[in-house]
Specification:
391 residues, mainly alpha, two-stranded antiparallel sheet
Length: 391
C-alpha cells in the first residue's frame, strides 16, 4: 500500500540557518558554563515550541472546555522536578557546584503580583515562557507583549521598596522545615490529588490524530513535561539555581533606561550588590539572559523546522492594546512576586517553597478575570481549543 502523502509545510531553511547563526554567533563571547546554559536555553525553546507547552491557553482550555490535559502535564513536570531537585537541594551541591532553590518570602506582594500576572497572561497571549517561545516562533503580537513585559518588569523594580513594606512572612522551604523525604511525599500527594480531581471533572476529550517527529514536532505534552523537568535540573546544576526567566527582562529594561538617561542611583532596588553588578556588566555574563536568548533562538529554530515560522501576521488595534496591557501586567506582577509561572511557580514549588504554592493559588483567580476580559479586546476564547496549549 503506498504511503499517504505528507502535506505538512516544508522546513524553512533560511530561518533555521539564521537561528543557528545566532547561536554560533553568541558562542565566542561565552565561557564554558555560559555556553552550556545557552545550549540548555536552545533545548528549552525547542521543547516548548514542539510540545506547545504553554500556561495561558492550558488554563483557559481547562476552565472553559474542561480539558485539563495541559494543566495536568504541568503538574507532572513539577512533580518530576521536585523529585529530581530534592537530593541536590538537600545536600546543597550538585557535581561540586553549590546550588540553592527558588525560595522567597510569602507575603502580599507575591499574592498581588501573581494575580496581576494571571490577568496579564490571558490578555498578553502567553506566560513568561510562552511569551518567549511564541515571539521566537515569529508571532509579532507576542513580540509586542515581550517588549511590554520588559517595560513592566523594569517599572516594578522602581517600586520594590514600597512593596517590601507590606506584611510578609519569611521564606519557607518545606524541605528544610519538614525534612526532604517528608516534603517530597507531601508535594507529590498534593500534586497527584489535584491532577486526579482535574481528570475527574474533565469532559470527554476529542481524539486528535497527531504524527510525532523528533525535530519537526509536534511532541506529546508528557514528553515536553519530562524534557522540561530534566532541563530544569541541568540548569540547577550549571547555574546554581533553578530555571527562571523574568529577571532578565528587568535587567534588559534597566539597561535600556540607562541608555536614555535614567540614573540607577535613584532606585534603591538597583543599589543591591547583585543588581548593581548585573547592571554594570554584560548581559552575556547573566545566566538568565543567556538562557532566554537561547530559548528565543531555539523556538525560532523549532518553528522553522516545523515550517511554521510566521513573522507576517497582522495585528488588530485591540489585540495590540491587549498585548501591551498584558505584557505590562505580567512584567510588573512577576517582578514583585519574585518570578513568573516558571521562576515562582514551577521552580518555586519544585524547590518546596511556600511562595510557589501561594503564587499559583493567586494566579488562578487572575486568570479567570483575564479570560473574562479577553473578548473586550477582540480575543476569542474559543480558539484556545485549537492551539494545542499555546498561549
Amino acid at each position: 500500500m503506498p504511503s499517504r502523502p505528507d502535506h505538512r509545510p516544508g522546513v524553512q531553511w533560511p530561518v533555521a540557518l539564521l537561528a543557528l547563526a545566532g547561536v554560533l554567533g553568541l558562542m565566542p563571547f561565552l565561557a564554558g558554563r555560559m555556553m552550556a546554559l545557552l545550549g540548555i536555553g536552545v533545548l528549552l525553546g525547542l521543547t516548548l515550541f514542539h510540545a506547545a507547552f504553554g500556561f495561558a491557553s492550558a488554563y483557559r482550555v481547562a476552565i472553559l472546555r474542561r480539558d485539563s490535559a495541559g494543566v495536568r502535564a504541568q503538574l507532572w513536570m513539577v512533580a518530576l522536578a521536585t523529585v529530581l531537585f530534592a537530593p541536590a537541594l538537600a545536600s546543597g551541591s550538585m557535581f561540586g557546584q553549590a546550588v540553592g532553590g527558588a525560595v522567597a518570602p510569602v507575603g502580599w506582594q507575591v499574592a498581588v503580583g501573581a494575580f496581576m500576572f494571571g490577568i496579564g497572561m490571558q490578555l498578553g497571549g502567553g506566560c513568561g515562557s510562552g511569551t518567549l517561545y511564541t515571539a521566537g516562533g515569529g508571532n509579532p503580537r507576542m513580540g509586542v507583549t515581550l517588549l511590554a513585559f520588559i517595560a513592566g518588569s523594569f517599572w516594578a523594580s522602581l517600586h520594590m521598596g514600597w512593596w517590601q513594606t507590606l506584611p510578609s512572612a519569611p521564606a519557607v522551604s518545606l524541605g528544610d522545615t519538614l525534612g526532604w523525604p517528608q516534603a517530597v511525599v507531601l508535594q507529590l500527594a498534593v500534586l497527584g490529588a489535584v491532577g486526579w480531581w482535574l481528570k475527574r471533572r474533565d469532559a470527554m476529550p476529542v481524539a486528535q490524530a497527531r504524527g510525532h517527529r523528533l525535530w519537526r514536532g509536534p511532541w506529546p505534552l508528557m514528553a515536553g513535561a519530562v524534557a522540561l523537568a530534566v532541563l530544569n535540573l541541568a540548569t540547577l546544576g550549571l547555574a546554581g539555581h533553578p530555571w527562571s526567566i523574568t529577571w532578565a527582562f528587568t535587567l534588559w529594561g534597566a539597561k535600556a533606561a540607562s541608555l536614555v538617561g535614567w540614573d540607577a542611583a535613584s532606585a534603591p532596588f538597583w543599589q543591591g550588590g547583585f543588581q548593581e553588578a548585573a547592571l554594570a556588566g554584560s548581559v552575556l555574563t547573566d545566566t538568565t539572559s543567556v538562557m532566554d536568548f537561547g530559548l528565543l533562538l531555539g523556538a525560532m529554530l523549532a518553528a522553522a523546522l516545523a515550517g511554521r515560522y510566521a513573522a507576517n501576521r497582522q495585528i488588530s488595534r485591540r489585540a495590540l492594546m491587549a498585548a501591551i496591557a498584558g505584557g505590562v501586567l505580567m512584567g510588573y506582577g512577576a517582578r514583585i512576586a519574585f518570578g513568573c509561572n516558571i521562576g515562582a511557580f514551577v521552580s518555586g514549588v519544585a524547590s518546596t517553597s511556600l511562595h510557589g504554592w501561594l503564587w499559583i493559588v493567586c494566579a488562578i483567580p487572575g486568570t479567570v478575570l483575564g479570560i473574562w476580559l479577553r473578548p473586550m479586546f477582540g480575543l476569542a476564547n474559543e480558539r484556545a481549543v485549537d492551539t494545542g496549549g499555546r498561549g
